Amino acid sequence: MKSEKTRGELRIRPFRSDSVEQAVGIHLAAFPGFFLARLGPRVLRILYREFAERPEDVVAIEARLNDKVVGVAVGPCRPGEFFETFVRRRRMSLAMASILFMLRTPASIPRILRAIRYRGEVKSGRGALLSSIAVDPEMQGTGVGRALLEAWCRGVRERGIEAAYLTTDRHENEATVIFYRRLGWEPGGTFVTREGRDMLTMTWDAASNIAPE
Ligand SMILES: CC(C)(COP(=O)(O)OP(=O)(O)OC[C@H]1O[C@@H](n2cnc3c(N)ncnc32)[C@H](O)[C@@H]1OP(=O)(O)O)[C@@H](O)C(=O)NCCC(=O)NCCS
Questions:
Q1: For residues 212 and 187, what is the distance between their CA atoms, to the nearest angstrom?
Q2: Does 142 sit in the ligand 1 pocket, CB within 6 Å?
């Protein structure tokens, strides 16, 4: 079935505002049960719109097959500044978008407050932050993720940034870690979140990765 779905020309290009709705759908499908997905589409919509609307601060890439978005890779060049501005500018809409979730699940409030203070800081992370990469589940394993991540790293380098990092689950996440390693990312430090989630930082260094032209 997958081969049917991959028929057509895969196009990689900057992520645009008119792709936000499709990106949100892919995120929800690719990260079921994860914090941002649980917060719901309204919060995701605000975040992805910010990624699309700040091309000077963010490297944001989309993959299209037959004119349908099938994957996205997004992340800020200077994470601290990006999230600071994001929270300040979108304070009201973020509060409105997450209020129902907070009322329904009061236990999540500390986690939400932590998200508001999140600036992408990780001990072993430097450079740009790959905030999210997600491929339509129907299309996973067909080369879309590779094309997206290579384009994202090229975008980082084109902005004169020589390093990048991401965080991912440390356990039961072998496929994802293999995916990043294949593309030249290395495991960095580890840390445990306040909720007790074991995390792994992975880093990418432009100098040791000759990005394909
Ligand atoms: C992780 C993800 C982005 C990878 O994208 P993808 O399109 O499935 O991956 P690709 O088909 O481009 O694979 C690229 C390379 O990784 C390897 N790889 C991908 N998935 C793999 C798996 N499950 N097991 C082993 N290797 C794998 C491939 O073999 C391939 O190597 P090659 O090009 O040398 O043959 C995608 O699967 C996804 O969206 N997963 C859900 C969301 C997620 O976990 N995002 C990352 C969170 S940190």
A1: 22
A2: yes
Q: How far is 93 from 43, CA to CA, in rounded Å?
A: 8
In the chain, where the domains are located: 2-208
Asked if CATH classification 3.40.630.30 holds for the domain at 2-208, the reply, yes or no, is yes
Question: Which residue, 66, 51, 67, 56, is CA-closest to 15?
Answer: 51
What digits encode the pLDDT tens for the residues 37-91?
999 999 999 999 999 999 999 999 999 999 899 999 999 999 999 999 999 999 9
Q: Is the predicted pLDDT of residue 210 greater than 80, yes or no?
A: no
Entry pTM: 0.94
Helices (H) and strands (E) in the chain, counts: 9, 8
168 lines ligand 1 (CB under 6 A): yes
Atom 22 (ligand 1): residue with closest C-alpha? 175
